[in-house]
Amino acid sequence: MRPQRLQCLELRANCPRTKLRPSRRTSVLSSELQTGSAPLTGKRTLKEPQIMKVVSLQLTLPAAILAIVLSGVGHAADTSTPSLSERDLQAKIQYCTYCHQPSGQGYLGSSPIPRLAGQQTVYFKNQLQAFIDRRRVNKFMFKVAHSLSPEMLTALATHFSDLNPKPLGGAPTELVATGKKIFEGGIPNSNVPPCSTCHGPEAKGNGAFPRLAGQLYPYILKVLGNWDKERGQDTANPDTSAIMKPIAHSLTESQIAAVAAYISYLE
Ligand code: HEC
Ligand code: HEC
Questions:
Q1: Would you call 113 helix, strand, or coil by DSSP?
Q2: What whole-number distance in Å separates Cα of residue 119 and Cα of residue 207?
Q3: Which residues touch 1 (CB under 8 Å, ≥6 apart)?
Q4: Cys staple from 211: which of 103, 147, 154, 205, with CB 3.0 to 4.6 Å?
Q5: Whose CA is nearest to atom 1 of ligand 1?
Q6: How far apart are alpha carbons 16 and 10 in whole angstroms?
């Protein structure tokens, strides 16, 4: 099951007849998704460095959001039983890489599949939990995530965080210089802080703040342009996506394109 075929599924059009009939899709997805069943639970942990970072930003972040960062980051798996076999892990990794590619570098297609390589494990797990809770919406990733056990989730997060392929690139290079300015200096007129304050000077991220370096250009365009429709979808349970929301809103389309181009080439 390659990304092209998945995308034709998603669009329900132009599918090569021999490769992809709905019945095939259903059987592949359901059989591959039926491993693991334990819901994600775990002791909540307090991550000092992230707290310091957020506090040191001296932004006027609403107290509710700070409280989320203070309390809701990460799901410790240390307490879970070591029931994960190497064979199950390798099978699951292979499944993820059908879409995210073997090196975790992501896939540039009509619907981009994000890079996972080098991603922060806390962010990685937060997002999978958000897909499970439907706070973050994506039909593929809900199906993928809801069957993962806590120990599988931790093992996958570790596996992908250790990978370090070259960025795929492909963004308009003429935008990079402007993007670097925005990343490092923010946009003072629009109250946008430097992206580097949270995502790190090299965009490598930290804890709940994701790595952005090498992330796919079209994926970043989509994410920043659609924040409200895809993230923080459970208003009763606000999450870390609220930190990024005002920033995504304040960026114009051309500013998004510039900063996305810059980020996409960072190694
Ligand atoms: C059917 C294709 C497909 C498969 C299989 C798949 N993913 Fe994804 N994944 C996606 C797409 C598409 C997105 C982007 C969702 C969006 O745009 O919000 C994504 C997003 C993610 C994200 C969020 C990335 C970010 O930067 O926020 C994580 C983490 C993730 N996937 C992990 C996994 C893991 C772990 C597996 C295997 C257990 C897996 N995925 C299997 C298609 C897939
Ligand atoms: C105040 C801290 C903060 C600042 C400043 C900030 N971000 Fe973020 N950003 C976050 C957090 C936290 C997340 C994770 C949100 C979540 O958990 O859903 C995030 C997520 C993102 C994502 C989604 C990553 C993915 O893989 O899906 C992108 C893209 C992004 N930020 C871009 C930017 C850009 C570009 C800037 C500068 C213009 C910026 N951020 C500034 C905190 C920040």
A1: strand
A2: 9
A3: 28, 98, 99
A4: 205
A5: 140
A6: 13
CA 171 to chain centroid, in Å, comes to 19
Centre of ligand 1 to C-alpha 55, Å, is 30
Q: Which residue, judged by its Cα, is nearest atom 24 of ligand 1?
A: 114
Higher pLDDT, 70 or 89: 89
Counting ligand 2 atoms within 8 A of each CB, the residue from 161, 190, 191, 198 with the most, and so the one to mutate, is 198
Give the Cα separation of 103 and 115 in Å (integer).
9
How confident is the model over 153-180, as pLDDT tens digits? 999 999 999 999 999 999 999 999 999 9
Closest to 179 in 3D by CA, of 266, 267, 257: 257
Q: Is the pLDDT of residue 74 over 90?
A: no
pTM of the model: 0.80
- Cα of 59 from ligand 1 centre, angstroms: 31
User: Burial, 201: exposed, middle or buried (Cβ in 10 Å; 0-12, 13-18, 19+)?
Assistant: exposed
Going by C-alpha positions, the residue among 194, 145, 178 that lies closest to residue 37 is 145
For residue 244, give the ligand nearest its CA: 2
Q: Which residues pair with 163 in a beta bridge?
A: none
Other C-beta atoms lying within 10 Å of the C-beta of residue 158: 13
Task: Report residue 222: phi and psi, to 5°.
Answer: -65, -45
pLDDT average, residue stretch 238-265: 97
